Structure formats: structure tokens, C-alpha cells
Fold each of these.
Amino acid sequence: MEILSATFVKSSANLAQCPEADVPEYAFIGRSNVGKSSLINMLTGRLSLAKISQTPGKTQLINHFMINEGKTPWLLADLPGYGYAKVSKKNREVFSLMIRTYLKNRENLMCAFVLLDSRLPAQKIDLEFMEWMGENGIPFVMVFTKVDKLNKTETAENFAAFEAEMLKTWEFLPQQFRTSSTKGEGKDELINFISETNAQW
Ligand code: GTP
Ligand code: MG
């Protein structure tokens, strides 16, 4: 599949405001600053489709983008980052509830991409979030970001440690992708995955 077009649809503050659920949808989620917007721009080949923030926690709405409209259309949803410390506890709870309601009830959601910073050891908040996804039967894959910031040894060590941590609670690990938005790494793999998943719509 080629990305022929990518256009911003709308920003939604909750599930009810989201665009019509009549084409397959993929959600991008992860901690603030993990690189969601950068990855969306890299995948779509549009340098400033999703706004890249210097200030983490900036995206506080669900932003929908329509890809390949009129051909093989699908929706991409950029979700607010979770767990950003500088956002008030009250606000964090509102976002968390909003995101979880969306994930559990969005009818056309084919798969969520849970973004994880490949430089960091497994974070409690990410592990808990993935566990919640598993418990609720929401399909997701793991997408490691910013692999360009690590050398080969660090990459191998970090992935081995992450896997070991996951295997404490997971019998089988979800599918994994390694990406760099600056280098374009992982783009073909993710686009192919979306293309194959679209075929199940
Ligand atoms: P919020 O919307 O605030 O939750 O952040 P986000 O997850 O959308 O992250 P964003 O794409 O805005 O990226 C955060 C920072 O990381 C920016 O300074 C990006 O330039 C940088 N960044 C993102 N992806 C990569 C990557 O693959 N490699 C490198 N080197 N930097 C990256
Ligand atoms: Mg963002």
C-alpha cells in the first residue's frame, strides 16, 4: 500500500465527537513525548501533518487523519499522551478516562499502536497500560521509537531486558516494531501491517 493522501479530519474531546466509524482505524498511543506525532508524519510522508511538540503533553485531543480517501480509506487517530507529570492529576484522570472509553468502544478500531521509547527500560505506566489493553481484549502491537538514538549493543540489551520484563506477565508477546522517525526505519513494516489488517475489514 502506498500513502496517496493524508488529511486532517478533526480534533475530538471524547468518543462521541469522533468521525464516523465507517472505515478501519488505527490509534497511536503512548507516553507524552514518546514520538507519536513524529511517527505519524514519518508514516504518512507529510512533514507537519501531526504537530510535533517541544512541550510534552501538548496533544490533549484525539486527532483524526483520513488516509487514502476515495481509494483504500482508513483513519489514523493520534491520541493524547498518557502520564505526563506536569499535567494536573485531575486532568490526567480525565484524559485517561477519555482514552480508555475510546479504546473500549470505538467500533472501527482495528489495532492500537502502543509506542515505547526504546532508550528506556520498561516503564511501569506502559506495562500497566498494556496489561489493561490485554485484559480488555483490545488488539495492539508494540512500536519502539527513536531507535536511531541507540547503538547496536544498547539496542540489543534494551530489547532483551524489555522482553524479559514483559514475559513476567505475558505468555506470548504482542507483535513488535522498531522505528525511527528521523531515519524512516520501520515505515514499510508498519504500512504493510496496516495494509494486511485492512484486508480483514
Ligand atoms: P505529545 O504529543 O506531547 O504527547 O508527544 P508525541 O508523542 O507526539 O512526541 P513528538 O512526536 O512530538 O516527539 C517528541 C520529541 O521527540 C520531539 O523533539 C521529536 O523531534 C523527538 N523524536 C520523535 N521521534 C524521534 C525519532 O525517531 N528519533 C529522534 N532522534 N527523535 C525523535
Ligand atoms: Mg503529539
Amino acid sequence: MITRNLDIVYAADILRQLDNVLILTHVKPDGDALGSALGLAALMRGNMRHAKVLLPEPVPEKYRIFAEGVDILTQAPENPEDEFDALIVVDCAANERVAAGAGFDFPREDISILNIDHHPGNAVKAEWTCVLPEAAATAEILVRMANLIDWDITPQAATLLLLGIITDTGCFRFSNTKPETLRTAAELLENDADQAMIIDAVYFSMPRSQQLFTAEMVQTHTVLDFDGQYACAVIPEELCKKYQFNMRDGETLIESLREIRGVKIAALLYQTADKKVKISLRSKDPETPVGPLARSLGGGGHEMAAGVTLGDCDLQGAAAILRGEVSKLL
Ligand code: AMP
Ligand code: MN
Ligand code: MN
């Protein structure tokens, strides 16, 4: 559970006092993880602070353009406490999800940690925690904090933070889009965020091979169940090989299932490099939320977008377990 959830005013003041930080986020970083981590670094540098971002994994291709010119560490420093005032963890709800990517033990006692996130049930062990589940994206919280402490938002920071908001709201289509979300996005545009660059990179740059991969996934590897209310895609390794597709770049694949009329719950399963099964879950109906389902299987996330990784079973076994849980909802 949340160690001590601080008021955002107090948390923003902690942020203001930090001069030199290392920023971390979750494994397999998505648009909000990258936009928040890189955007916070840009924010801090624009306000006379020092910040580096630790990203041990390669940045997904479509986001690479946003990482250019940012001070990124790909290897964890051996003794971060000698180099930095604090670690800031953004958009990550669980210690293991930081640890798996960080390259050093996490949580740790030898350095202060500020944990900024929007996932309900955030359990990251930190000295200071600020979790606002009503925020559509962690990037939205960072903009609110910047305003509270009168920080300038440079065009680069604005672009990165808008990337986080746009990707976590599916371009303002998902139900987490609130008036405050749109006001925050408007403010970022006023600060010269490059909206055209974001849309082009994230939505209008799909490799042809990914389009073909998606078509085959929908046609051959997707099952519609429970009178069409449940769409489940099970991705075999051969499909990835055929199109040379890396699932690291597959963050939006599940949208093709969610788009189908009548579908309430969408699921996408694939095998990870360490032979576990990664399940992504989305709901279109607040009456059938997938957050509790993911948590019951040991995962987490939001009510309408959640995920879980299962060990000790193959793809078909995981699909059967999942179908059993879904049957309780539909
Ligand atoms: P994804 O399906 O990976 O796009 O994730 C959707 C949401 O579920 C995100 O908010 C993730 O933080 C969360 N999530 C995904 N996988 C896991 C997991 N194994 N454990 C906890 N939360 C997860
Ligand atoms: Mn994320
Ligand atoms: Mn997020």
C-alpha cells in the first residue's frame, strides 16, 4: 500500500528542493513512462536543476525521437547515493516493476525516493509518495506540480509531458480524459508543445509490417467469446518471427480488439523472453472493470486498463485461466 500519500502541494515542494536526481520508471516503458521520465528531466533542467534518466532497455522505435538529446543512462550507477540527492520514480506502481529494469536493488534504504504516480494501489517503497489516481497520466501530475512551484515549462518539457497525456488517454478517447486533463494539455500547447510531432510519431508512423502483423493477429489469432463481449488474442512466437515484430513495440495492438463493436473486455497474451506469459487487459464498460481481475491474478493497473504476468504456464494455459476469470464478469 501507499507508504504515506502526500498532498500534491507538499510533494511539489519536495520536488522543488531537489537539485540533482536520477529518474526511474517501469519496465517496458510506455508513452507516459517515457514522457514523464524524460519530461521531468527536461523540466528540472529548465529550472536550474540536474537530472538524469535511467533507461536500461532500448526505447521502443516510435518513441526514440523523443529521447534524442536527453541525458539518459543505460547502466545503473553502482552507488547512486554518492552522485544524486534522490531517486524519483514516475508512473510505476510496484517495486518489482522498477527493479526489473533498474539494474540495481530496489527499493533501497541508502537514498531518498520520491514516488509520483497515478495507479491506484501503488506500493512503491519510498520516503515520499504522491499518487493521484484521478490523473489520466503521471505527466498530468508533473504539470500540476510544476505550476504549484512556479517552474517554467520549456517547449521540450511540454512536448514530452504532452506525449504522456496523449498516449495514456489514447489521444483523449479513454474515459480517464477529464476536464483537468484537457486543460493541462491546452496549457502544454500554450507552452509550445509539438503536438504534430507527437501525433506523427505515435499514430501516423506504423511500419507496414506491423499493420500486416495486426491484420493476421485479428484474423487468425483472436477469439471472440461470450457472445462477442470478450476478444482475446494469443500471439504465437511464429507470428512475431514472420513479421520480425518485437512485442516491445506492441503497446497499442490491443486497441484493435477494443475497437470491435460489442466487445466489453479485450485481452492480449504473449510469451516474454523469460518464458512467462504477459497479459494485457482492457475494459470498455465500467461494470466489467479489469483492474480487480488483474489484481486477483497477481498483476495490477487501472480499473479499465490493467496487466499481469503469469509464470509457470504456457500461452494456452494462461488463456484458459483468464477465460475462467472473465466468465465471472460476463
Ligand atoms: P499494459 O497492458 O502493459 O499496457 O498495462 C496496462 C496497465 O496495467 C498499466 O497501467 C500497467 O502499469 C499495468 N500493468 C501491466 N502489467 C502489469 C503487471 N505485471 N503488474 C502490475 N501492473 C501491471
Ligand atoms: Mn505507464
Ligand atoms: Mn501512466
